[in-house]
Design brief:
Structural class: alpha/beta
Radius of gyration: 20 Å
Strand content: 15-25%
CATH architecture of the largest domain: 3-Layer(aba) Sandwich
CATH superfamily of the largest domain: Vaccinia Virus protein VP39
Bound molecules: glutamine
Helix content: 25-40%
Number of helices: 10
Order of helices and strands: HHHHEEHEHEHEEHHEHEE
Shape: globular
Distance between the termini: 56 Å
Length: about 270
């Protein structure tokens, strides 16, 4: 795996052995297992082989931790990223009991479901255009028994939402410029769904739509919280300002990148 550019080959091999034997990494480290059966050994070699060919660990193991919860993932959805937790934090901080929150491009549902798990006093609508992504979100919603709190919708953006119905609109939309997709790491380029990455020629296609959607679906004074790609925050701020949003600002992620853009819908 080291030869195939896997960053932490030893740790990942331990996690994959744990996956095959159904043991935690600490149980693997404590060597709480006997000699491997031929079947286990075959399965271990097969997952090491998949990982060596670039398949992300999260797709092989079938889950990723996000905001301290495990979410089921497969290749129909983007693997949740730690920087996206900022969206959840901000939505949780800024919402009031009874608020309706929209999560657009929900993918695995990690954002909407994490908000719901943190705040049982909120209602959420999570939408995605991809039916196969929504199936993943549905599995996650069921595993946390959030059916009554989170509604899932197959829709392009906010098209199915009522005007002025949302207190908060949150989204981590596809934001990679089309021409940059083939420069991404192999793991992303070959395995993650292009539809969840491709933000059009300038990477801004979905922000334009979200600015329009936000103006229509948010209540006056409602909050828009968007994840931004590297170097996109200024363009998003301008777009939101031109669309009638005020009190605009950005928040940086742990790497110092302006990662989240926040604004309120003015009168
Ligand atoms: N909301 C999901 C996430 O943040 C999916 C985002 C997407 O598909 N662009 O992981």
């Amino acid at each position: 795996m080291r030869d195939q550019c896997v960053d932490q080959p030893k740790m990942e091999a331990q996690l994959l052995l744990g996956y095959v034997l159904n043991l935690s990494r600490s149980q693997i480290l404590a060597e709480m297992f006997g000699p491997l059966s031929t079947e286990d050994l075959d399965r271990f070699h097969s997952v090491i082989d998949r990982r060596s060919k670039g398949e992300p660990l999260a797709y092989i193991r079938g889950f990723k931790e996000f905001y301290s919860h495990n979410f089921y993932v497969n290749s129909s959805v983007l693997i949740p990223r730690p920087e996206t937790e900022l969206l959840v934090e901000q939505a949780v901080l800024r919402s009031k009991p009874g608020d309706l929150i929209g999560d657009i491009c929900t993918g695995s549902g990690c954002v909407a479901l994490s908000i719901a798990l943190a705040r049982s006093d909120l209602q959420l609508i999570a939408s995605d255009i991809s039916l196969s992504a929504l199936k993943v979100a549905e599995i996650n919603r069921r595993s946390y028994t959030l059916e009554s709190q989170v509604k899932l919708l197959q829709a392009d953006g906010c098209e199915a939402l009522q005007p002025q119905s949302l207190s908060i609109l949150v989204s981590n939309p596809p934001y990679i410029e089309t021409s940059h997709i083939n420069t991404l790491q192999r793991e992303i380029r070959l395995f993650e769904p292009g539809i969840a990455l491709d933000g059009g020629d300038d990477g801004m296609r979905f922000y334009r739509k979200l600015a329009d959607d936000g103006r229509r679906c948010l209540k006056t004074g409602g909050t828009i919280i968007l994840e931004a790609g590297f170097g996109q925050s200024d363009a998003i701020l301008k777009l939101l300002s031109d669309s009638g949003f005020i009190k605009l600002h950005c928040m940086r992620d742990l790497s110092g990148i302006e990662r989240v853009v926040i604004g309120e819908l003015g009168d």
